Amino acid sequence: MMLLMTCVVAILLSDFSIAKDWCYFGCENSLPHWGKHYPKCNGRKQSPINIDTQKVIKNQELASFELIHFSLPHTMKMLKNNGHTVECELKAGAVGVRGGGLKHKYTVLQFHFHWGGKDLMHHPGSEHSLNGHRSPLEMHIVSRRSDLNDSTAAKVQDGFAVMGFFIEGDKKEKEKEKTTSKVWESFTDYLQKIPRKGDKVRIMEPFSMHQLLKGVDLSKYYRYNGSLTTPPCDEAVVWTIFKDPIRIGRDLLLRFPTKISFDNVFRPQHPLNNRVVYSSAALTAGHAGTAEHVLQPPTIQGP
Ligand SMILES: *[C@@H]1O[C@H](CO)[C@@H](O)[C@H](O)[C@H]1NC(C)=O
Ligand SMILES: *[C@@H]1O[C@H](CO)[C@@H](O)[C@H](O)[C@H]1NC(C)=O
């Protein structure tokens, strides 16, 4: 009996430790195997997806966001290399978001990045794409419903709201005139201090969220229901993908796959299945489907 118990405990423990340990490639629980240990990764509302702008449906309720304290300096706390990405932790409860068609207020927790190979221009690493076009990098600002905690948020479709931004590279000369570049230069300077898993560095500069998002029209976006793009892949995310990319110098883009000891950290795309992608009120037809689509509300299929 004792022996049996020990075996059961050992199996449970080993299963748990394997399940905790995942990677994109080069380990046992790599991308094609995520679903074995994290069954939700095999779901039908997974992220990322490609957005086909001819098929999106305009939704007048998708107005501008109210971004709370996005202009406030010193809201970023720590930049961490967690072995899958670099993640910037924000000061607890400092920054929030509501509006933009969201039914609740959300608290911003962190933002992180997905990137491709060392030759980023030829091996892009954005997770989402627009009409099949992928960008070198994608940034995700992750927020959680202010009335929930991590475990309760994971159980509802709108537990988390993630804002996704494409990041494109500009030639250096063009970039010099823009102030965005200076902030991104200082921000990406931190990358060389955290090359390996477990490394972290405190952010001392007075950066604000808005400084990183310069040049993006925050009223032009796409909206769909999806999942976390890393295990456990909970289908608990209201996704907002902004149409305009953030533009930074190419040399700054390249710091991600070269200063950090890993690259190609993105999940492949998943089928839309019977989901709908909406476009915000500020996106004009042509960017957002045909007039026919604009006039007719979607028929949502029942379960
Ligand atoms: C999250 O909230 C639920 C319900 O309020 C509570 O039962 C649970 O203990 C909380 N979990 C954590 C990790 O705080
Ligand atoms: C997401 O799912 C919820 C609940 O099923 C639904 O009310 C909402 O309209 C969906 N949103 C989108 C953008 O499809």
Automatic annotation (TrEMBL):
It comes from the Eukaryota. The lineage of its organism: Eukaryota, Metazoa, Chordata, Craniata, Vertebrata. This is carbonic anhydrase. The keyword Lyase applies. Pfam families: Carb_anhydrase (PF00194). One of its GO terms (cellular component) is plasma membrane. Its EC number is 4.2.1.1. Keywords: Glycoprotein, Lyase, Metal-binding, Signal, Zinc. PANTHER family: CARBONIC ANHYDRASE (PTHR18952), CARBONIC ANHYDRASE 15 (PTHR18952:SF134). Residues 20-281 form the Alpha-carbonic anhydrase domain. One of its GO terms (molecular function) is carbonate dehydratase activity. Residues 1-19 form the signal peptide. It is an enzyme of class 4 (lyase). Belongs to the alpha-carbonic anhydrase family. It comes from Onychostoma macrolepis.
